Amino acid sequence: MKQIALLGATGSIGLQTLDVLRAHKEEFSLHAMAFGRNTKEAVPLIQEFNPAIVVVQDEDTKQKLEREIDHSTILSGSGGLIEASVADSVDVVVNAVMGSIGLPATLKAIEAKKSIAIANKETLVTAGHLVMEAAHKHGVELLPVDSEHSAIYQALNGENAKDIYKLIITASGGSFRDKKREELAGVTVKDALNHPNWSMGAKITIDSASMMNKGLEVIEAHWLFNVPYDKIHVILHRESVIHSMVEFVDRSVMAQLGTPDMKVPIQYALTYPDRLDLPMTKQLDLEEIATLHFEKMDMERFPCLRMAYEAGRTGGSMTTVLNAANEEAVRLFLNNDISFLEIEQLIEQELTNHQVIHTPDLSTILSIDKTTRERVRSHLK
Ligand code: NDP
Ligand code: MG
Q1: Where would I find the 1-deoxy-D-xylulose 5-phosphate reductoisomerase C-terminal domain in this sequence (predicted)?
Q2: Which end of the chain has a smaller Cβ tally under 10 Å, C or N?
Q3: Domains in the chain, please, with CATH?
Q4: Quick one: pLDDT band at residue 381, thresholds 50, 70, 90?
């Protein structure tokens, strides 16, 4: 029986992880769960799964929850996330929080030699070098939950890194894939949240519409698979049937296919190297799909993807700035404080003004993350 610590239990990935646990009660048990402030969603989950440790975002939420349920171990804040992740009984930490807030807990879980199922791509974008260095040092493997990276992980099974010619990451194109750049000026939050293929949390849905999600995934792939940016390609594939591919030096291409359902990569990260049945997921019906489409990615049309490649190639603290500026700008957009196109403008401004630090340590990263967010907010005035 694997004991799970689930960070971000009330989110899109978190709830689907709980579906996987429900389907395999003999295999997995929930030892700890963390969420932000959504006690309404969380209380029935706590009652159902009865985790030994519950973590919430802040002290106010902790007090609110203590009034609602009788539970002996409710923790709060970043310290709580860490405590849940390193608890002795925990075998696997599923990091499904939104944003770079997941970084310190990931590093501590690696030090405690826990298996890490990582959905939280912002952690790798903001501090990939620290996470991978810690993983190598402590002999911990990061199991990707992001569907593209799970696909690449599966395609690479048993292969030698030296034989990789390139990674080919597929992009559905997000909510605005059929709009021209001129048409993006007046789009609303509601338009942006309407993703054609995947149902996900709000922030990643906006990232998909701006194509920043693909940019973050390129950086995530660079760190997870230790592949240079020149060998990471993005291709538009509107059906989201091929989740990503690896081309090898002998021109052989391995692809992983499936219906767009995050429960598949979530479960694989939990069962690896084994597999389990997943009855609630639809089988892939290629006869019904009949045709698959591929298009070249246009970097002018999607400047966020261009900026992510540039920040990734510069490296160091540049990707910390990319991530923090994006997180904050997306928050402002979701709040109706800025327009959709201002997201990319604010990020570009931050990247242009930043003096890169080449191998920032954790405190430098946390400080750059904080000041970048403050500056993005201040542009508003
Ligand atoms: P959601 O916004 O749906 O969920 C985020 C979760 O994190 C919620 O449970 C939220 O709690 C919790 N949370 C937020 N802040 C804190 C905090 N300070 N302390 C503790 N918990 C916190 O996000 P998604 O599930 O969509 O995405 C999660 C991660 O997975 C992101 O990094 C995303 O990029 C990645 N990902 C998501 C995919 C998807 O299909 N959704 C696909 C691939 C990757 P509360 O509900 O209380 O706010
Ligand atoms: Mg993805």
Answers
A1: 142-225
A2: C
A3: 2-140 (3.40.50.720), 149-313 (no CATH), 315-381 (1.10.1740.10)
A4: low
